[in-house]
């Protein structure tokens, strides 16, 4: 499928990985309706493709995404935003993907761009990355999860500081705060993200999907319920050939060859 606002590749060097690049350079990858709709389609394609085990989502060197498209939103009325349920369907299409999505963030990840990165499963950042929720400067608030996800990731004090002042956080502060899992030199970011993704794609896709579901459950439930769910899914993994393969390979001192069955 050809896209207007995305470049989708299957890099040879990273088997099992789909690389999705946001591609609106004229607007620093600002997220408009077309881009977010296409992103949902590209992710659905990756979800339906047994040859894909992990997705890397990235932007350009200057910007992962500089926010939702202010020019698209500026003249909208409340009735239009409400009737279109602006970005709810597009956000769901991202949030409900069962395969892992890694955000590889270089340059600006602001507003909706920061929110999109936080919708991914984890964030790898270039040393040039800058995160922020500057919506307050526009007289609005984050609208695709920023107030909720940033607070869970970095805690109330830093989230309030970021959201109420609109200031940016550099990569080092983002890593210290738990927003980012690892930092790489900017010119190595995508290659390193592809290596991480290829490692994930080589695992059992069944175990990967269940592990993703379990970590996400930690945000939604109590400890007792979460641990009970973990035990149930842990037990259920013994129904798959991949568990036999993984454990036999360890005992036989060889690399496992997971089949997703
Ligand atoms: N929307 C539209 N266009 C943008 C955006 C944006 N968010 N960001 C940058 N652009 C455009 C600029 O207008 C400019 O276009 P042009 O050349 O036609 O004037 C081009 O990209 C390059 O930008 P700059 O010249 O400004 O580049 P600089 O290097 O000088 O500055 C910045 C880079 C600091 C990133 C600056 O562009 C900036 O501040 N951008 C806006 C950041 C921002 O406020 N983001 C939040 C947007 S609101 C939001 O994300 C709400 C999310 C919730 C929506 C959910 C709805 C339910």
TrEMBL record:
GO molecular function term, any single one: enoyl-CoA hydratase activity
PROSITE patterns named among the record's database cross-references: ENOYL_COA_HYDRATASE
Keywords on record: Lyase
The EC number(s) this enzyme carries: 4.2.1.17
EC class of the enzyme, as a word: lyase
Residues that span the membrane, as ranges: none
PANTHER family registered for this protein in UniProt: ENOYL-COA HYDRATASE, MITOCHONDRIAL, ENOYL-COA HYDRATASE-RELATED
Annotated family: Belongs to the enoyl-CoA hydratase/isomerase family.
The protein's name: Enoyl-CoA hydratase
Organism: Caulobacter hibisci
């Amino acid at each position: 499928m050809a896209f207007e606002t995305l470049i989708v590749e299957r890099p040879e060097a990273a088997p099992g990985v789909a690389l999705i690049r946001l591609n609106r350079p004229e607007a620093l990858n600002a997220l408009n309706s077309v881009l977010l709709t296409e992103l949902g389609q590209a992710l659905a394609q990756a979800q339906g493709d047994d040859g894909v085990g992990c997705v890397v989502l990235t932007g350009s060197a200057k910007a992962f995404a500089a926010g939702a498209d202010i020019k698209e939103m500026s003249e909208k009325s409340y009735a239009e935003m409400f009737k279109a349920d602006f970005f709810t369907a597009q956000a769901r299409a991202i949030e409900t993907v069962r395969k892992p999505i890694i955000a590889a963030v270089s340059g600006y990840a602001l507003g909706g761009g920061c929110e999109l990165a936080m919708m991914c499963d984890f964030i790898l950042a270039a040393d040039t990355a800058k995160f922020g929720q500057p919506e307050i400067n526009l007289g609005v608030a984050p609208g695709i999860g920023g107030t909720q996800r940033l607070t869970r990731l970095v805690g109330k004090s830093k989230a309030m500081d970021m959201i109420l002042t609109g200031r940016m956080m550099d990569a080092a502060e983002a890593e210290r705060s738990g927003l980012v899992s690892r930092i790489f030199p900017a010119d190595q970011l995508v290659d390193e993200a592809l290596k991480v993704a290829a490692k994930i794609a080589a695992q059992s896709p069944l175990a990967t999907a269940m592990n993703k579901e379990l970590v996400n459950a930690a945000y939604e439930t109590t400890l007792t319920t979460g641990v009970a769910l973990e035990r149930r899914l842990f037990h259920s993994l013994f129904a798959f050939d991949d568990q036999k393969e993984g454990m036999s390979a360890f005992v036989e001192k060889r690399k496992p060859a997971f089949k997703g069955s």
